[in-house]
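Milestone 3.1: sequence recovery, worked example.
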């Protein structure tokens, strides 16, 4: 996944990893302050492209070890996004138990945008 984080550089893209039911890790050398509310938007490529939309809060920084960045906890997800997340988690669980499903070529994302929400 790649992200453009408003407040950092809106033209830059930033990798994202460790997507889970509770949040995501945004790779960046300049994390937003802990407690910052952000909006997350990206397209997940499952069977068809689906827009993932939600709100999150920066809950931790990781700067000493690689990768550098910030942990974002989901605060609110649209129903469609919750469904997409459920499908992603099901595919991840299946990949752990069935070697034939270990390829994640059908799970791709494009253009994640995380923007700071106005308070």
């Amino acid at each position: 996944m790649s992200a453009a984080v408003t407040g950092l550089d809106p033209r830059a893209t930033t990798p994202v990893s460790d997507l889970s039911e509770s949040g995501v890790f945004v790779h960046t050398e300049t994390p937003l302050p802990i407690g910052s509310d952000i909006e997350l938007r990206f397209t997940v490529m499952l069977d068809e492209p689906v827009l993932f939309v939600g709100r999150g809060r920066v809950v931790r920084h990781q700067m000493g070890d690689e990768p550098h960045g910030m942990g974002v906890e989901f605060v609110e997800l649209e129903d469609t996004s919750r469904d997409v997340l459920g499908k992603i988690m099901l595919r991840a669980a299946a990949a752990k138990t069935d070697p034939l499903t270990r390829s994640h070529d059908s799970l791709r994302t494009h253009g994640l945008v995380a923007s700071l929400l106005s308070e």
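The mean pLDDT is 75. The domain at 2-112 is CATH 2.40.10 (Thrombin, subunit H).
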